[in-house]
Amino acid sequence: MISTVPSRAPSAQADGPLDALVVGGGFYGCGIAVALRQRHGLDRVLVVERDAELLARASYVNQARVHNGYHYPRSFMTAYRSRVNLPRFAADYADCIDDSFVKVYAIARRNSLVTARQFARFCQEIGAPCEPAPPAVARLFAPERIEQVFLVREFAFDAVALRRRMEGALEAAGIPVWLGAEVTGVAAEGDKQRVSLRMRGETRSLTARRVFNCTYAGLNGLGNGFGRLRSTLKHEITEMALLSMPDELAGLGVTVMDGPFFSTMPFPARGLHSLSHVRYTPHASWTSAGEDGGLPPYAVLDAYPKRSRAGHMLRDAARFLPALAGARVEDSLFEIKTVLAVNEVDDGRPILLERNTALPCAWSVLGGKIDNIYDIHQALEAWAPPDWAPRDPAATSATARPAAACGGTAAAAAAMPRLEIRHA
Questions:
Q1: Which of 240, 217, 200, 378 is nearest to 288 (CA)?
Q2: pTM here?
Q3: Alpha carbon of 187 to those of 29, 125, 213, 393: distances in Å?
Q4: Do the Cβ atoms of 59 and 26 come closer than 8 Å?
Q5: What whole-number distance in Å separates Cα of residue 213 and Cα of residue 182?
Q6: Quick one: 247 exposed, middle or buried, by C-beta within 10 A (0-12, 13-18, 19+)?
Q7: pLDDT in tens, 314-356
Q8: Do β-strands 146-152 and 102-108 pair in parallel, antiparallel, or remain unpaired?
């Protein structure tokens, strides 16, 4: 049912309105669509994606890291949720996981916001496996720049395999997908939403009882009627370099903490390693509340002259890990990275779930990290009204509570323990 031709989708007005329209075919959009169908019993669900394939943007262009908490010593909740979700994600998507490499975190002697002792204590507090790296691994690092190296447990995911999994899940759930379809406007129509789309040069219209905006960097770009988020977003044009590694680093993933440093991880979708750098990966940034806030992020990216900084990344990283001097840059991937501006200070990555107050039943969702998909499932359960009864009652978590109308109440949100969800 993955199609660029919408003639067979369930939105023909003779069939009545959609139960739910999910705009955005990234991992979160696809996961939400499947959950609405299988866990909440909504029969008529449609996914629309403006690109030519699913999981083609931020779900693909990232470090492919399945977090286990180590990356967030300044945001305990993000770290904690990663620890909770990693085992489940690794089990549920075992065919998409690469756990064949050794992963280490190295703490810089200078300009790090955490010391080696603090990092070890933090790992103990969140229950994350952490021990001194074997001497053969520790010797790979420049001792004058690195205080200590820790052996940890962290995985990578194959974004291409994950795309195939989500395509299969959508098909098994009977959820059609329109590719190359861009939403141009949303308007209230009674207790529903009238949605206008442009697809292959044609304009189409459909109605939906519920709309989920899962367009990541495009959350403020659904056209007239949907409006802009109340939450402020920060957008960055980012570059991730892809490397061929020398033999001594081929089976290793490295993150240097916690400051203007770097991380290199296996990138299974290409059989290479990724390299990102806190200083050189971001090329430009702006917020949705600033004077450039109205700029469409993906259009900005398309027009940006993509001059690579991979050489700068590699030379600086080699000061800490000298063997990186033998790596070869094969490619660079440019993409928009979008986070909540409020989390610039603590580096947290909560999921944003924001109700649109101008429409009968519309939500915007900004995913935090790929392994936190389970938090949005639990949030939907807690906020789902009674008519979203799950097909399988066992699928509903113990924290789920019924709520009235389209969304839920502040009390329902407050009743969700230990979920990293930012409601607006």
A1: 217
A2: 0.89
A3: 21, 48, 14, 34
A4: yes
A5: 12
A6: exposed
A7: 999 999 999 999 999 999 999 999 999 988 777 778 889 999 9
A8: antiparallel
